[in-house]
Known about the structure:
Elements: E1 23-27, E2 38-44, E3 47-52, E4 58-60, H1 66-70, H2 75-82, H3 90-103, E5 112-116, H4 122-129, E6 133-138, H5 141-149, E7 154-156, E8 169-175, H6 184-194, E9 195-206, H7 211-216, E10 230-231, H8 234-243, E11 246-253, E12 259-266, E13 283-290
Parallel strand pairs: 5-6, 5-8, 6-7, 8-9
Antiparallel strand pairs: 1-13, 2-3, 3-4, 4-10, 9-12, 11-12
Helix pairs in contact: 3-4
The chain binds zinc ion (ZN).
Zinc ion binds at residues 30, 32-33, 35, 52, 54-55, 57, 236.
Amino acid sequence: xxxxxxxxxxxxxxxxxxxxxxxxxxxxxxxxxxxxxxxxxxxxxxxxxxxxxxxxxxxxxxxxxxxxxxxxxxxxxxxxxxxxxxxxxxxxxxxxxxxxxxxxxxxxxxxxxxxxxxxxxxxxxxxxxxxxxxxxxxxxxxxxxxxxxxxxxxxxxxxxxxxxxxxxxxxxxxxxxxxxxxxxxxxxxxxxxxxxxxxxxxxxxxxxxxxxxxxxxxxxxxxxxxxxxxxxxxxxxxxxxxxxxxxxxxxxxxxxxxxxxxxxxxxxxxxxxxxxxxxxxxxxxxxxxxx
Length: 291
Ligand SMILES: [Zn+2]
């Protein structure tokens, strides 16, 4: 394990200086299953991660305040780090198609698709080619500017504060974005409320149960507690979807199990998703920064 080493984290230059990004909110209750029992998982980037004893959700705790984590999502990050890694290749298109294939049955409900966390807009562009009417949001203004230039209907919004997704959709997709948000339970509730009855939520994210984390722990390339505030277990994803009132259809993983996906549908027989309690009491504020 690498202790507090952060030198190998490739995204470091976009963060505040080492050590200045300190934990000031400590988890009190797991946002997925509401358990209050945690075990220490490890430390990196001067930040600790803990594991929920009940559902296996891995989370940064204590974690920096939001202003510090949002610094990451800058124009520099988008243009210099994110976008160069998003070149459209046959492999990337196959990956995107594997996610869109799982949303495809929802086209019978409505051929409208919303993406939470659009990145460079590759998934929405591909979805549009496949016959969906698309929309989406991202927390990074540079991402939205880029996607708008591709003719996509998108806007800038932070899902941790959003009241709605601006409409009703047959499908809501999140591809490698829920691990970045501060309140995944709110994220799932927003998605559930925006789905039409019979519609599908498809989430694809980083797994805490794959080869990489199992073999390398906090030295895994997936572990970056300043940016990936959560790493998900099967149980935590199932719990998040169920608490949002959705019916879980299936879970799948990539070949190393380092990435995990879940499909959940909005029931046709209930008008409203179950209301998830406010998350404001899930985190307690530290009296002072912990280094
Ligand atoms: Zn839990």
